[in-house]
Amino acid sequence: MVSVLFVCLGNICRSPMAEAIMRHKVKEAGLERSIQVDSAGTGDWHIGHTPHQGTRDLLDQHQISYEGMIARQFASADFEQFDYIVCMDNSNWSNVKSLPGAKEESLIRFMDLLPGHELKEVPDPYYTGNFEQVYELMDAGCQMLLDKIKTEKL
């Protein structure tokens, strides 16, 4: 089983959107028994909360399930459980990388999945309000990640 963890700040906007989109793509590819997907936040403000309303609205528009998704905080134990830890911005990357047990070889900056894109970090729609922009990035990047996993691990 290949495992993927998406990480953002509070685990209510970007990382749960990526988790839901990736789970959807994995299911469409018939790989549910081969790829596990989760998400977490580096902060603890939203532990136990469902995804942000803006995230839920966009996922609903695209008929992508977020059922059962609850915010949690990233833990050092995640380094042992996940093959790919995908961070949404440089702050998340630095926070995760500084934790005990960090395995830099498993860390990916999300925007590195979209080489040549003008953005180098995924904007946080909690602050920008632009959930559509983030959805477009997540959709394209998750497809690239799925292709990468198929090539590298399956």
TrEMBL record:
Its EC number is 3.1.3.48. Gene3D superfamilies: 3.40.50.2300. Pfam families: LMWPc. This is protein-tyrosine-phosphatase. It is an enzyme of class 3 (hydrolase). Residues 2-148 form the Phosphotyrosine protein phosphatase I domain. It catalyses: O-phospho-L-tyrosyl-[protein] + H2O = L-tyrosyl-[protein] + phosphate. Keywords: Hydrolase, Protein phosphatase. It comes from Paenibacillus dokdonensis. Signal peptide: none annotated. Belongs to the low molecular weight phosphotyrosine protein phosphatase family. InterPro entries: LMW_PTPase (IPR050438), Ptyr_pPase (IPR023485), Ptyr_pPase_sf (IPR036196), Tyr_phospatase_low_mol_wt (IPR017867). It comes from the Bacteria.
